[in-house]
Design brief:
Its EC number is 7.1.1.1. Belongs to the AlaDH/PNT family. This is proton-translocating NAD(P)(+) transhydrogenase. By secondary structure, the chain is of the alpha/beta class. It contains twelve helices and 19 strands. The protein folds into two domains: 162 residues, 3-Layer(aba) Sandwich (Rossmann fold), CATH 3.40.50; 189 residues, Rossmann fold, CATH 3.40.50. It has a seven-stranded mixed beta sheet, covered by helices on one side. It binds nicotinamide-adenine-dinucleotide. The site of nicotinamide-adenine-dinucleotide has 31 residues, from α5 and α6.
């Protein structure tokens, strides 16, 4: 089985879907690995290191020729996959609910029309067995960390309390909204930097996690239907009554905060709006908000993907692809997720992975020329 590792085509994407470490492991499984020249450059992995790990390194045509598996961080443009084997697997974050050129339904349809089997790694089920294959977790963790550093980078004050001969600098107050994988890491990072941290979520199970990290939980209480946990541990959309109570709570709290990190997502739906322009206006000038959900519609009114904008004296940071801003670590973890996935299903006799269980059903978008994933058919 030949595995092709492509140089990413999306603007601003510095990550790579395989590292010399995972190439070596694929070779040990009996796979042949081809890497497109320069694929790892953005993440500081040199062509020579891939070659030393056992890969052939060449241009795109040579890389794809006869490949049965094509690895990407983001889904490659189907029009650029000429030479891959018929029915080749495209294994990447395919962003099927996204809009624009690096995802979306039209691209999934194009994979199907070309006869590829497209496997969307972000559809990995949240089961213990699949944890090591979960790109959402590995990338969100880094994004949560980087979001706090990005906030610190544009905040005109220090995070920790400092007592100096010239007087005392008070600790920054950081509020984390959405305590999933990214939010937990944001809390931990802000705490390490010495901030006073509070956090909120719709899933009440997160209260204990917030406390265990030394932060203060801020929760809507006494509203019917407050349990916002849906299937697979993901959040659900909340009732109108809850949203109103949450808005009041946020308004009271946010006016006293210096930094807000928002991470709230609902799979397959636009991100919930957590901060309105009017709420923003109550924050102190010089405060900073980082909206990690900006590419899914944004948690913060006025956030712009790819930009840092200022409203009412508050900076709103809307970087895209935040995990990709740490390309070396993000690639290392992403690559291991892909290796863990393919090696788990590797059939020694067949010399390739065979995907025939619930994990395959969850991630497979297309097969035999058709879109087959229930999440795209309903
Ligand atoms: P996510 O990225 O989908 O969402 C981020 C957070 O935003 C979630 O905690 C969600 O509850 C919260 N949120 C949504 N709407 C909100 C609102 N209106 N107000 C406030 N917060 C809101 O979540 P995630 O990071 O992917 O994690 C979701 C859960 O899945 C967590 O419990 C996580 O530990 C679990 N998980 C399990 C596995 C596994 O078992 N394989 C892997 C990854 C995550």
């Amino acid at each position: 089985m030949k595995i092709a590792v492509l140089k990413e085509g999306a603007a601003g994407e510095s990550r790579v879907a395989a590292t010399p470490e995972t190439v070596k492991k694929f070779v040990a499984l009996g796979a042949q690995v081809a890497v497109e020249a320069g694929a790892g450059a953005g993440a500081s992995y040199a062509d020579g290191d891939y070659a030393a790990a056992g890969a052939s390194v060449g241009d795109r045509v040579a890389t794809l020729a006869g490949a049965g598996i094509v690895l990407g961080v983001q889904g490659p443009d189907p029009a650029t996959l000429g030479g891959a084997a018929p029915g080749a697997w495209i294994v990447a974050g395919l962003n099927p609910f996204g809009a624009g050129e690096n995802g979306g339904r039209a691209r999934v349809d194009a994979y199907a029309a070309a006869g590829y089997e497209a496997l969307a790694m972000e559809f990995m089920p949240r089961i213990t067995r699949a944890q090591s294959m979960d790109i959402l977790s590995s990338q969100s963790n880094l994004a949560g960390y980087k979001a706090v550093l990005d906030a610190a980078g544009v905040y005109g004050r220090a995070f920790p309390m400092m007592m100096t001969a010239a007087g005392t600098v008070s600790a920054a107050k950081v509020f984390v909204m959405g305590v999933g994988v990214a939010g937990l890491q944001a809390i931990a990072t802000a705490r390490r930097l010495g901030a006073q941290v509070s956090a909120t979520d719709v899933r009440s199970a997160t209260k204990e996690q917030i406390l265990s990290l030394g932060a203060k939980p801020i929760f809507v209480e006494n509203v019917a239907g407050i349990e916002g946990e849906g299937s697979g541990g993901y959040a659900t959309e909340m009732s109108e009554e809850y949203q109103k109570a949450q808005a009041e709570l946020v308004s009271a709290h946010i006016a006293k905060q210096d930094i807000v990190i928002t991470t709230a997502l609902i799979p397959g739906r636009p991100a919930p709006r957590l901060i309105s322009d009017a709420q923003l206006a109550t924050m102190r000038p010089g405060s900073v908000i980082v909206d990690l959900a900006v590419e899914s519609g944004g948690n913060v009114e006025g956030a712009v993907a790819g930009e840092i904008v200022e409203r009412h004296g508050v900076k709103i940071v809307g970087h895209r692809n935040v995990a990709g801003r740490l390309p070396a670590d993000a690639s290392a973890l992403f690559a291991r997720n892909l290796y863990n996935f393919l090696s788990t299903f590797w059939d020694k006799d067949a010399g390739k992975p065979v995907l025939d269980d619930e994990i395959g059903d969850a991630v497979r978008l297309t097969r035999d020329g058709a879109v087959v994933n229930p999440r795209l058919l309903s």
